[in-house]
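Thread: Newbie trying to understand structure tokens

Hi all, I'm a second-year student working on a class project, and my supervisor (Dr. K.) asked me to get a predicted structure for one chain before our next meeting. I've only ever worked with sequences, so writing a 3D structure as a token string is new to me. If someone could post the tokens and maybe explain what I'm looking at, I'd be very grateful. Here's the chain:
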Amino acid sequence: MNGIEFKAKPGFKRMHIALMIGYWGGIGLLFALVCFKLWIGLKPQELFSAEKGIAHWFFSVPLSDTMTNSVMLPFTYFQPINPDMFDAKTAYLVVSLTNTTLIFITYIYSIGQIRNIIGSILSGSSPFNQANATRLKKLGIVVILYSLLAKLVLNILICLFVTRIFSINLGGISLIGIIIGILVLFVSEIFKYGVLLQEEHDSTL
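---
Reply by user tm_fold:
Sure, no problem. This is what the structure looks like when written as tokens:
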């Protein structure tokens, strides 16, 4: 933009470092958790249990004499059928791996977009540029998609690999997540308008 530089405040550098740590830390934690879940999957079938609660399933496996790892899932995503009608180990792995993967992929992608926005500011350019507007738009879309589809994907995988009973539940949509995603899309439109104003300003110089 005609060589005009935007001077970022010192706090942006710290923010960028924190986001870098969060980004690579998220990738490392995702890898560690997936490996941990796969290691648990090597345990014998008889160690896994499925307990039917009042409104939830609890899938558990002992890690030691004093420690147990478990995941909880509402009946809305997993029918309250008899425990002997499905494999507890498969249920545990499908639920834990799906939840872990979807959450961390969404987190890593979101942090990456914000990190790139801060990075562009640190490079000396104005925050109001087309690239940042696009990053915000992608961020909003990802948040909305996760809010709409995360539980649906889990529901479908359970039907395919665990119960083999076709039952799709659409009640797992996160309205708060959708609202947040829409607000981010609104901010991306504000950034686009800022880009137009910046270009008009630069053209008059």
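A couple of things are worth pointing out once you decode it. DSSP finds four helices and three strands in the chain. The mean pLDDT is 87. Feel free to ask follow-ups in this thread.
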